[in-house]
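User: I'm curious whether this sequence folds into something compact or stays loose and floppy. Could you predict its structure so I can see for myself?
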Amino acid sequence: MIANFTVRNPTKYRIKDLEITCNHFAPSGTEIDKNVRTIYESVPPNGTRRFNKFNMGLILGQVKSSSCNITDLVVEDSTPAPASGRPKTSR
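Assistant: Here's the prediction. I'll summarize afterward.
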């Protein structure tokens, strides 16, 4: 299954390593399979990224429809790193 995904990040934090889970359904509506893959890319704060032709792996021949969602991700810490050297003191 080759899929195109558009990911919108409405937060003030960069997100990365997006785990995508695609559930696959038979004509009867029964879930018969799923594929899980990770996109090792990042999406900037308040940004949108498009991932084209992402390979989600093989799917069964009886699949009639699929539904994909982000099921996990990593939020990058936006806390500034401490300044190197001694702490500043006021005099």
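Summary: The chain has a mean pLDDT of 89. Residues 12 and 45 are 5 Å apart (CA to CA).
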